[in-house]
Design brief:
This protein is mainly α and 171 residues long. It has 4 helices and no strands. The chain has one domain. Helix 1 packs antiparallel against helix 2. The radius of gyration is 29 Å and the shape is rod-shaped.
Length: 171
């Protein structure tokens, strides 16, 4: 009777570890997708910034030409256009706004990159905990049982660290 209780408990623990492993894998996958998405988005915003810089430079050349020709009306219009290229809060597409947007995206990506190793190590340790618990069921070893429990608990802490980053540690 005690033997069957031990195996039943170990089976339920394996099930719990497997469920948490599945959740951790989903979190890890979503995190990896976010890193990729943020990398692409930041690159797009920086490319748009560069296009705005080129247009601004060309407009500045036209402005200098208009001033040299003493065409002050055109020069005034071009100066307003140059200022819009530099900052355009109305549309959010000025160079100043684009740079702020790119930096915000890169900060989010950096946060996701900090989380990634925690999820990876947690995945590996959950798998190890499952294998140890299965071996404990076969060999009826209490030592292996408790090692598996400790490994699973440590894996859960790593997963939580990946989610919340509550410890000031980076990997």
């Amino acid at each position: 009777m005690i033997l069957s209780k031990f195996k039943e408990r170990a089976g339920w623990i394996i099930t719990l570890f497997a469920a948490i492993l599945a959740l951790n894998s989903i979190l890890d996958g979503n995190n990896s997708s976010q890193i990729l998405s943020d990398t692409i988005e930041a690159s797009n915003v920086r490319s748009f910034y560069q296009a705005k810089s080129i247009k601004q430079n060309l407009t500045e050349i036209k402005y200098d030409d208009a001033v040299a020709r003493k065409d002050f009306k055109t020069a005034e219009e071009l100066k307003a256009k140059i200022n819009r290229y530099e900052s355009d809060p109305k549309t959010g597409e000025g160079k100043k706004e684009l740079m702020a947007k790119a930096r915000a995206i890169e900060e989010n990506r950096a946060l996701c990159e900090l989380k990634s190793p925690w999820y990876t190590f947690s995945n590996a340790l959950f798998q190890i905990a499952i294998v140890i618990m299965a071996a404990a069921m076969i060999t009826l070893s209490m030592r292996m049982y408790w090692i598996s429990i400790a490994t699973g608990a440590f894996s859960f802490i790593l997963m939580c660290q990946g989610f919340w980053l509550f410890l000031p540690i980076t990997l």
